[in-house]
Design goal:
This protein has 200 residues and is an all-alpha fold. It contains nine helices and no strands. The longest helix is centred in the middle third of the chain and has 27 residues. The radius of gyration is 21 Å and the shape is elongated. 24% of the residues are buried. It holds the Pfam family TetR_N.
């Protein structure tokens, strides 16, 4: 009796070619968010036909580069100790998050100019969920303010991270402002002091 057909596996050299192209896309778009297919193919050391054999268009390649960057980032963030006091845990998470945001800011800019906003939010679901869980825990423990919507506080944290990266790119902030970023976020989340005057 004949054996069922075996689905052919992608050749090892094709897998290596894809990995090389994605790596080149991350590197190139991480410096020049407007980099073209030709720029990326040149950085990868492959021809246009080879690149298009794996990626139908620039959008597919940009998404693959972003997915790879987020995968590597997730490995780093998943190793951060978030136990104990929420404020201290947030400081540890921000230091790791800040480094990743700074490294991928130009790549994110390329993605925002290419991919639908909903897709970008979907790809960032894991780091966003981690930040939300930590902030909610801090609110429940009384470490973080709860007078503002949690979704808004999370958005503000992301604005601070991305804003700092943009300021660095513009030359208006030092290259490693992790302390400034952390102090800013912690101040935003600090429980406000009671109104000494009381209700009107």
């Amino acid at each position: 009796m004949a054996s069922p057909p075996v689905r052919p596996r992608r050749r090892a050299d094709a897998e290596r070619s894809i990995a090389r192209i994605v790596s080149a896309a991350r590197m190139t778009l991480g410096v020049h968010p407007d980099a073209t297919i030709d720029d990326i193919a040149k950085a990868a050391g492959v021809g246009r036909m080879t690149l298009y054999g794996h990626f139908a268009n620039r959008a597919e390649l940009v998404e693959a580069a972003l997915v790879e960057a987020l995968r590597c980032g997730e490995e780093v963030l998943a190793a951060v100790d978030l136990t104990g006091n929420a404020r201290q845990a947030l400081t540890r998470l921000l230091h790791s998050s800040w480094t990743l945001v700074a490294e991928s800011m130009a790549l994110l800019e390329a993605a925002e100019g290419t991919l639908p906003a909903g897709r970008i939010r979907e790809l960032h679901a894991a780091p966003s969920a981690r930040m939300e869980e930590l902030i909610r825990r801090g609110q429940a423990d009384g470490d973080f303010r709860s007078d503002l919507p949690t979704s808004w506080l999370i958005s503000v944290v992301h604005y601070v991270l991305h804003g700092a990266a943009a300021e660095i790119r513009a030359g208006r902030m030092p290259a490693n402002p992790a302390g400034t970023v952390t102090a800013t976020v912690q101040s935003i989340l600090t429980v406000p002091a009671p109104d000494e005057n009381g209700p009107a």
